[in-house]
Amino acid sequence: MLRIATRESPLALWQARFVSQLLEAANPGLRTELVAMSTVADRDQESSIAEIGGKGLFAKEVQVAVLSDRADVAVHSAKDLPAITPPGLVLAAVPSRGDCRDALVGAGVDELPPGSVVGTGSNRRRVQMAELCPGVAFAELRGNMATRLDKARSFDAIVVAAAALQRLGLADHITQILEPGVFIPQVGQGALGIECRAGDSVTVALLDSIDDPVTNREVTAERAFLVELGGDCTLPAGAHAVSSSDGELTMNAILSASETIPSQDGLSRFRRADVERATLRGHDAVVLGTDLAIRLRNRIEPSPDHP
Predict the structure, then answer these.
(1) If you average pLDDT over every residue of the chain, what do you get?
(2) pTM for this structure?
(3) Residue 25 resides in a domain
(4) Which domain holds residue 85?
């Protein structure tokens, strides 16, 4: 029996059940059970992620369940994982990736004139939407997908992960898909990350049976990008790696230093929407992600040696 820790939101439960099915199919005779829990981030759906401690809150309590032996593995949206895996855990599997793209619900890019209000709590999404639709304002958007879709009626549009809507059978709500060549996804978006205790060799071997090496390398490169920046999802940064048939990785990334205009109406606006973009290719995932982060950071904050 393998115990799978997960948040209890509908999307998290879908992801955990999906991993359960993969494991049982790859390991005949294995049985799994879900250990579902509510996290602080799930219970507080009004505050911004930055205000309540950053994206690590989506993962921390699920990780603690594994570290304290209340569960054997933890299933996460890879984009919700902190850049650095906590001591005692190992990111043992990254199954084949789903849709990495962002999606608009309510209105498309061409239907958002200046003054439109877009719902999203992601700084990465905000700076790219401000770049595509100058003059739009932004409102905080939290909650599970059903809650976000319900709140969408209060805004001109909302930005969400396409994979989340697809996995929940809600893809018909999508107004426009934002292609990754124009709108860079969050690190790990569309992928699942599965952790277990670092010394649990039996579970590590079981998880290896559902790991997708191509997706794993791509996500490893993207996470190395985030590690170098020292950030999480509150940082206006994104990266997307794609592997070619010969194993070479191509990674596109963004980093922004855009300034927010102080507002009395609860909305966020940008004084400017400057977004630095870069593309690199390479075969070493960690080196690629690290070098791309350094390149973008130096453009925004030039070092004394490299003005």
Answers:
(1) 90
(2) 0.90
(3) yes
(4) 2-97+191-212
